[in-house]
């Protein structure tokens, strides 16, 4: 006699939400741990600035290639097992870049690093969307806020390790072990969604659905503004406004903190006003911020502008993932499509800003950022996609299948 699938009650869904939040934090901590040791990795591999720039393109390339596979992995092994395995591969991949002795091996290591990051990213966002649908309230913004929190924690640990002049190979090995254990433990309580025999497996490789392209365009604009501000705000303050290096660096930290806080607090705002209205207002905020940066007569005004950009784009990517997960019959495929577009934006934004700055000036570069921010205002309506669908029995779900039942009243979208 086979045992029927357990039902998730309210407490089970809350545990699953906190577990996925912990997974997002672990994922972000890997990124933060790696980013702070890039100078050590560059020196260890003996790379020039141009060679390092080439190598740093490979994580996004690896992610773009591998992300479409995440849906097939989840279908084959179930959501919980797939996430546990993919997250473990990602945390352990943290050890690879510091081991690379030259450009070729570093490119290969970063390709694997990005591939595992992208697949884990898709798996955890798909589970986050499923929990959001079952709870019938916004949680994606706070989940991405936990990712930002993890990135800050990982950066703090990396900064301490760099200050102590520790070997990045040792630092990343210790961090990988700690984060692997934390990730495996957190995955014990995520939803264990499994495909039924009637479910067709998703294609291993497939182009993003049309719905994902429109939603991804919104994510592209937001990630471009985010990446440009994170990577170039300090340079902008130093080169354009003749600010001291300490103040310039503080502006980048302030921007990252603004993003994290806005995401952690964003769910209540989204539930109150709806996704479309939040993105439109956020787009206006980011546009105003970009204009302040371009017209800034002094560092205080520019830093205020960067803060408004961060505040404006903070919830856009979480809402784009949520909309993708409700946009069609294959949520993982749609989420993978949106993730690929946003990763691409993050890849090209820093170099595009640099190229425009070389041809004209940094002021003109941030004029481009301002225009893309205004694109959020114009395109926000594409996030009015699908309703949240609770699981059967008023929001409780089973461990088999998607758990989607009759449509519930949707969160306000406009």
Structure description:
The structure is a single chain. By secondary structure, the protein is mostly helical. The chain is built from 17 helices and 2 strands. The protein has helices spanning 10-35, 38-45, 49-55, 58-66, 70-77, 79-93, 96-99, 103-135, 140-163, 168-187, 210-239, 245-273, 275-295, 299-313, 316-325, 331-359, 362-379; strands at 7-8, 397-398. Helix 15 (316-325) packs antiparallel against helix 16 (331-359). The protein is globular and about 60 Å long. The model is unreliable at 1-6 and 386-414 (pLDDT under 50).
Summarize, please.
This protein is mainly alpha-helical and 414 residues long. Helices cover 74% and strands 1% of the residues.
Write the layout of secondary structure elements.
Blueprint: E1 7-8, H1 10-35, H2 38-45, H3 49-55, H4 58-66, H5 70-77, H6 79-93, H7 96-99, H8 103-135, H9 140-163, H10 168-187, H11 210-239, H12 245-273, H13 275-295, H14 299-313, H15 316-325, H16 331-359, H17 362-379, E2 397-398
Antiparallel strand pairs: 1-2
Q: What oligomeric state do the depicted chains represent?
A: single chain
Largest sheet: 2 strands, antiparallel
Q: What does the average pLDDT come to?
A: 84
Q: Helical residue percent?
A: over 70%
SSE string, helices as H and strands as E: EHHHHHHHHHHHHHHHHHE
Radius of gyration: 21 Å
> Strand share of the residues?
under 5%
Strand arrangement in the largest pleated sheet:
1-2
Counting DSSP E segments of at least 2 residues, the number of strands comes to: 2
**Segments where pLDDT lies below 50 for 5+ residues?**
1-6, 386-414
**H/I helix tally:** 17
Shape call: globular
Query: What class, by secondary structure content?
Result: mainly alpha
The termini sit apart by 50 Å
């Amino acid at each position: 006699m086979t045992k029927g699938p357990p039902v998730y009650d309210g407490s089970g869904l809350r545990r699953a939400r906190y577990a996925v939040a912990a997974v997002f934090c672990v994922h972000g901590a890997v990124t933060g741990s790696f980013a702070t040791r890039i100078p050590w990795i560059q020196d260890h591999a003996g790379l020039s600035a141009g060679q390092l720039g080439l190598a740093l393109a490979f994580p996004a390339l690896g992610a773009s290639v591998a992300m479409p596979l995440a849906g097939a992995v989840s279908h084959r092994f179930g959501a919980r097992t797939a996430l546990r395995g993919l997250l473990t591969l990602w945390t352990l991949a943290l050890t690879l870049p510091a081991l690379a002795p030259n450009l070729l091996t570093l490119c290969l290591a970063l390709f694997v690093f990005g591939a595992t990051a992208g697949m884990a990213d898709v798996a955890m966002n798909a589970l986050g969307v499923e929990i959001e649908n079952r709870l019938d309230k916004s949680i994606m913004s706070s989940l991405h806020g936990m990712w930002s929190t993890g990135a800050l924690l990982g950066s703090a640990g990396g900064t301490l390790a760099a200050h102590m002049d520790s070997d990045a190979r040792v630092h990343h090995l210790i961090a990988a072990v700690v984060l692997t254990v934390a990730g495996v433990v957190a995955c014990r309580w995520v939803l264990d969604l499994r495909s039924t025999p009637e479910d067709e497996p998703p294609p291993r490789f497939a182009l993003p659905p049309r719905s994902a392209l429109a939603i991804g365009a919104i994510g592209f604009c937001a990630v471009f503004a985010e990446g440009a501000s994170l990577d170039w705000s300090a340079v902008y303050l130093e080169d354009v406004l003749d600010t001291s290096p300490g103040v310039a660096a503080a502006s980048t930290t302030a921007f990252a903190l603004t993003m994290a806080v806005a995401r952690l607090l964003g769910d209540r705002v989204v539930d109150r006003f709806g996704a479309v209205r939040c993105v439109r207002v956020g787009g206006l905020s980011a546009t105003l911020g970009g204009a302040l940066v371009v017209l800034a007569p002094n560092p205080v005004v520019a830093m205020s502008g960067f803060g408004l950009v961060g505040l404006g784009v903070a919830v856009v990517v979480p809402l784009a993932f949520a909309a993708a997960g409700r946009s069609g019959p294959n949520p993982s495929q749609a989420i993978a499509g949106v993730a690929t577009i946003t990763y691409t934006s993050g890849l090209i934004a820093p170099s595009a800003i640099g190229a425009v700055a070389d041809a004209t000036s940094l002021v003109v570069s941030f004029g481009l950022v301002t225009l893309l921010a205004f694109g959020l205002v114009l395109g926000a309506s594409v996030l009015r996609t699908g309703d949240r669908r609770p699981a059967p029995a008023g929001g409780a779900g089973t461990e088999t299948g998607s758990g989607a039942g009759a449509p519930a009243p949707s969160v306000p979208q406009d």
